[in-house]
Structures are given as structure tokens and as C-alpha cells.
TrEMBL record:
Residues 1-106 form the Response regulatory domain. The modification 4-aspartylphosphate is found at D41. This is Response regulatory domain-containing protein. It comes from Dipteronia sinensis. The keyword Phosphoprotein applies. Keywords: Phosphoprotein. GO terms for biological process: phosphorelay signal transduction system. Transmembrane segments: none annotated. Pfam families: Response_reg (PF00072).
Length: 119
């Protein structure tokens, strides 16, 4: 699934940096890296997507965070959204979903206002 998602992102000229788990994603931001958009998988080892998203928002990360999941549990999906996601999509991502994501405004989690975002 990861290779499919990476291929779709590259097809719309998005440069990707892949992590193996949520802790690696958080550590990349702690090291000073910045991104325009993060695609966060809910089901990751070590630190899941919910925990990683909460941590990123607590650190002041304001980029668009898009959650992806194959989970059908409504309560878990709602917890993922509440962690600070801008958008949540079910796996697999498709080219149509990615294009839709790129066109949507980013939510300003500080003021709760939507801002226009472009890659």
C-alpha cells in the first residue's frame, strides 16, 4: 500500500519522505524539518497516527495533516480526527483523492479558521 501511495504522490509531483512509524515522523519535525503536507497513517507501530498527530500539533506544527486509515471503527476514526487532522481518508489513496486533498483549504488549528493552502 505504501508503494502505491508513494507512486500516486509522485505522479502529482509531490516529493515524499517516508517514515516507518509515528515516532520517526515526530522526530523529523523535532530535527527542524518542515513540510507542506503530512499523510499520516493511523495504524503505525511504536507511535500510532493518533499519538503522532497529537504530538505534532502540540509542538506547533501547522502544516496540513491528512489521516489515512483502513480502520472501520467510528470511535477510533473520530479520535484520529480530533487529534488534529485536517482531513481523514480511507485507504487506499487514489489520484482523485489526492487531487481533492490538494485543493482543500488548510485548517488553522490555532484560530480554528480555514486558510487557503496551495502546494
Amino acid at each position: 500500500m505504501r508503494k502505491l501511495h508513494e507512486s500516486i504522490l509522485k505522479s502529482v509531483e509531490i516529493t515524499t519522505q517516508i517514515t516507518q512509524n509515528g515516532k520517526e515522523a515526530v522526530d523529523i519535525f523535532r530535527s527542524g524539518a518542515n513540510f507542506d503536507i503530512v499523510f499520516m497513517d493511523m495504524e503505525m507501530p511504536i507511535m500510532n497516527g493518533i499519538e503522532a498527530t497529537k504530538e505534532l500539533r502540540a509542538m506547533g506544527v501547522v502544516c496540513k495533516i491528512v489521516g489515512v486509515t483502513s480502520c472501520e471503527n467510528t470511535t477510533k476514526k473520530e479520535a484520529f480526527k480530533q487529534a488534529g487532522l485536517d482531513i481523514l481518508h480511507e485507504k487506499p489513496l487514489t489520484l482523485a483523492k489526492v487531487n481533492s486533498i490538494l485543493e482543500q483549504p488548510r485548517i488553522d488549528h490555532e484560530s480554528k479558521l480555514a486558510n487557503i493552502w496551495s502546494p
